[in-house]
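[audit] Reproducing an earlier prediction to check determinism. Same input, same settings, fresh worker. If the tokens differ from the archived copy the diff job will pick it up downstream; this log only records the rerun itself.
[audit] input (438 residues):
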Amino acid sequence: MRLHDSAWAWLLEKEWRELLASRAWWVLLVVMGPLVGFAFTSAVRSYAEASGLNGTAAGVGEAFSPLVGIWAPTFSACELAAVFLLPFVVIRIVAGDRQGGALKLELQHAMPAPGRVAAKGLILLLGWVIASVPVMAAIVLWHSYGGSIYGAELATVAAGHVINAGLTIGIGAATASITEHPSTAAILTLSVTVGTWILNFVAAVQGGTWERLASFTPTTMVADFQHGLIKLDAAIAAVTLTLLGLGIAAVWVRLGVPVRRRVAESIAATAFALLVILAGTATTKSWDMSESRLNSFSRSDEATLRSIPGPISIDVHLAPEDPRRVDLDHRVIAKLRRVRPDVNVHYQSSTSIGLFEQTSAGYGEIWYDIQGKKAMSRAVTAEAVLETLYSLAAVTPAADEDDVFRGHPLIARPAKAVAVFYLLWPALIVSAAIALRS
């Protein structure tokens, strides 16, 4: 047991040295400063201008949520880095052993393949946390300006980007282990990313099943977390896919095992992962961690909606790319489904854009049905939809003024941000790289 523990500690130390020797990781560290700095300073300026800086309006109260105004744009730099920079770090760490011959020496030890891959994954995740330090600096700066910080929503955004980084690590580890050359692994990893973007595009046009599949893509998952929403099914899918990627990497690092067996084991692991994800889709559990309840109706409205006998059926005659349908889906239907999982929404359209469908009979109509009682409306705002549902159910929600989010307007300039992100951070990383690599 002691020998096994010492081998594990040696492997972690070895992977850490590999990370320090990786130029790709140091490039990631240097670039993260300006990326986060640009996103943060732009967000602070926009937030201040909307709050009344330079003679603009005095603000619109509840519209000022740091979650949307500051954290979402600032953390978007992490999403960009995870897509275009982190894969090269992962491929360098995973594929470097095969290219340099170190993998053959490691295979002579008793350490199982999953343990080797797990060590690489842990070190890569640690490397990502270190690369995220500029975001932590942005949080400190925002607090120094007097900005409001709501811990639950901030932690949710951060967790979403950590999960997204883990997913990138899993995909990169799998491609780097399967392919013979790092460049091929990079192309495959980026192909997977582009494939998820295509899926999101198709979902926006076609809706239905495609929209359900797109809800599990990294882009959609990160968007949910950036809005303070934790969806259990998407989290299960992301973690499962991460473990699948690491598992496939563990299968393919065993160079002495026949290729046919490794292919069979990879297929079996993929099938098991798909079963887990499919089982996870059965849950509709979610948590709105935003201070403004961005993803939810007011508490009084939710209590009233739960009291309405179901099911609730909604027939929408709008094309997938019609802006009214987009507003209805994101601002009303998504919130309604969180309260009433039994709501049935049926979309009707003969075209994808609805441009030449405007004159057809019934286009733009939204029909509501509660236990045989029907009503039609063309409005897509949350207030109008709730009013129609309450009218059909003959219920009245209780007024709750304390449930209104007043917002946190703040007129502040991004003081010291340029010096921190564009000068201090790059200088610190370059100095550390010279000291540790010399």
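[audit] rerun output stored. Observation attached for the diff report: The CA atoms of residues 33 and 134 lie 6 Å apart.
[audit] end
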